[in-house]
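Subject: mismatched residue count in predicted assembly?

I count 820 residues in my input, but I want to confirm that the predicted structure covers every chain. Input:
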Amino acid sequence: MQTSDLLERCYPGRRAELKRSILSQALACFNAQGIEATTIEMIRAACQTSVGAIYHHFGNKEGLVAALFFTALDDQATLREGYLAQAKTTQEGVYALVHSYVDWVDSQPDWARFQFHARFAVTKGPLKDELVARNKARNRQLMEWLAEPGRGAELLRVPAELMPSLIIGQAESYCRAWLSGRVLSSPKRYREVLAEAAWRSLGSD
Amino acid sequence: MQTSDLLERCYPGRRAELKRSILSQALACFNAQGIEATTIEMIRAACQTSVGAIYHHFGNKEGLVAALFFTALDDQATLREGYLAQAKTTQEGVYALVHSYVDWVDSQPDWARFQFHARFAVTKGPLKDELVARNKARNRQLMEWLAEPGRGAELLRVPAELMPSLIIGQAESYCRAWLSGRVLSSPKRYREVLAEAAWRSLGSD
Amino acid sequence: MQTSDLLERCYPGRRAELKRSILSQALACFNAQGIEATTIEMIRAACQTSVGAIYHHFGNKEGLVAALFFTALDDQATLREGYLAQAKTTQEGVYALVHSYVDWVDSQPDWARFQFHARFAVTKGPLKDELVARNKARNRQLMEWLAEPGRGAELLRVPAELMPSLIIGQAESYCRAWLSGRVLSSPKRYREVLAEAAWRSLGSD
Amino acid sequence: MQTSDLLERCYPGRRAELKRSILSQALACFNAQGIEATTIEMIRAACQTSVGAIYHHFGNKEGLVAALFFTALDDQATLREGYLAQAKTTQEGVYALVHSYVDWVDSQPDWARFQFHARFAVTKGPLKDELVARNKARNRQLMEWLAEPGRGAELLRVPAELMPSLIIGQAESYCRAWLSGRVLSSPKRYREVLAEAAWRSLGSD
DNA sequence: AATGAATGAGCCTTCATTCAT
DNA sequence: GATGAATGAAGGCTCATTCAT
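Triage response: the counts match. Full output below for your records.
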């Protein structure tokens, strides 16, 4: 199960066993019932521990949501950075963004589903600033990549605030549809189509 | 205030005054606090009625959400159908979809914001079938439009389940960003760019 | 039962029946177990209502404590003002203060006992300012009484901040002892001894 | 800092260093937040130990309260006995009681404040009998002092159960006011006034 | 149709205490 | 002796919903 792989990577060691178990079961509950509809008691029952242990490790329900959310964000960012590091041309960069997005959702559907539903909650919670900061950092990173010599010239005509939506919007839309069961084929099946579409839509002929 | 216009259109007359007031304030509360975080008491206080009146008109909280959600869905559909009716070629059809989407979000931002957040709740509620039915109807309608002689041939290469995301994904992504304050320019400013991008991404050169 | 008399006076009418019942039982519970050790559930069981009703009328546990505390304060003040209004000389004024204190404790032992234990809680709560204001008002009132022509001249040698303790300290001390069971005779038995002692202690020979 | 002095006197030596630290911080926490509102975790954080260490030394929270309470009681008694040993006449005895009370509160305000708030808790706890026993012992001691030839004859008219309140009531009342910030001058400033008032109030002219 | 007091299941959270290391 | 992770009973409080007036 890939969910555990990600957790083992982020919280390694035997000491963190309970922590991983809580996170794993919480993720499952949140996705199955929705975040608000999930009670601490459900999570407790799912990982056979005590409510005290959950609060000991995560402070409160919001802390649990935040831990999951930022774990997902980090993992997604790691994959994106890896893909981007190998891209040479602007086109390869756009492909890297689409491919990393699609591949991550395909390999971590549970984390992706949770990310969509938790974003709103995190935005209203006490870690909203942290989230804004990460978004800014991501955008800055992308801009720096484009600023390298011989890259990004083709995209100058596109308004900066529109760029992320043009590149990732279609993939995101399809991933949402897949994760909520409205379509059946994994987005990975269309990773090339989606990358090509994004690139064409940028209109650098 | 456009929110009321839409309500007046859907619930006309003096008898429905209270009903409109409740819906209007409920919409505001849901958007401000989130659906789950909004209590019936908050809505009652906002429109100076009694809880009994709210339950008399909408049955329960879920009924309130559903009324708002389907009102938005209907209004959006009406605009789309109007735009689509005037489109002759496939390209004009794609433009009509993007334009109607963008224009509706621009003119009804409160309803659009609510729609995004309520979809999940409705999907889990007792009206989920109604929602699925409407989605199917919309897709069927689109297919019928494309099936008319001299239309849609250019799109045959694109997988059907991918089509909606390719057409509307970018616009939707930008609208989300605007509604949540991450970007400042109204999507209407980019309606042409978004329509062209969608058309180009479909790759019918 | 005098406790109810006081309540009927302060919350009259049939509509307030439940409110009085809650206050009455809460007072009994607080005195029997202590404020912190009393749970809402205990009070609910004692007056056969629902937790919701308690919260509907008093907001929260602290609100219940505050309602009881200020009801007692008011009742005590009313008696004091009545006694004081009939005093002509300084000596009669001092006697009025001691007598009203002793008589009130004797006639409302439950409220008096509660007042002693609740003062600390109220001092830390959100109504601490209200309490400070009432104390000031009471002191001002007393000063005004003494400022009338032909009164208070005998007390000018006594420091103002010491005065309340000299007048009421002994009575208060004995009342505490009686309310906690350390002595058996009602303070009313010693009302004259206590008044005389207070007057003598002021040293106006 | 006098708080530590008292502790060093009662728990001397290097072995008891941790014990003194725990007691000292617990006293501070209890006074700052109230006994019930203070958690073991707060105390642990204040003296940088582990919860285990606290339980090892004091058994449980109640044990901590009791240790502090009886330490204060003992210290206060020691001072009183010293003062009383030097009194020859009845009047000197009354003065000794008032002076020792005032002087102790002035020199150990933290312990005095705690004593006021903890008395109720101890009264309900498992050491209530111990407390009753000490009170009786103190009263017996006082009676024995008065029973010596040439002493106490002046007080025979005063009821025994009223005596402690008449002697100490005013001082106690003022000390309470000072400890809770309602008056600003230390009771020590008024030690003579309070002693004279107590003596006068006993009415032995 | 309107009102709002009353209901009570259920939630999040706290915290004294234990015990394996 | 020291540590602190783990326990779980219990508490305050919320809030959708009902129903007598």
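Residues 2-201 of chain C form a domain with the Tetracycline Repressor; domain 2 fold (CATH 1.10.357.10). Marking this ticket as 'not a bug'.
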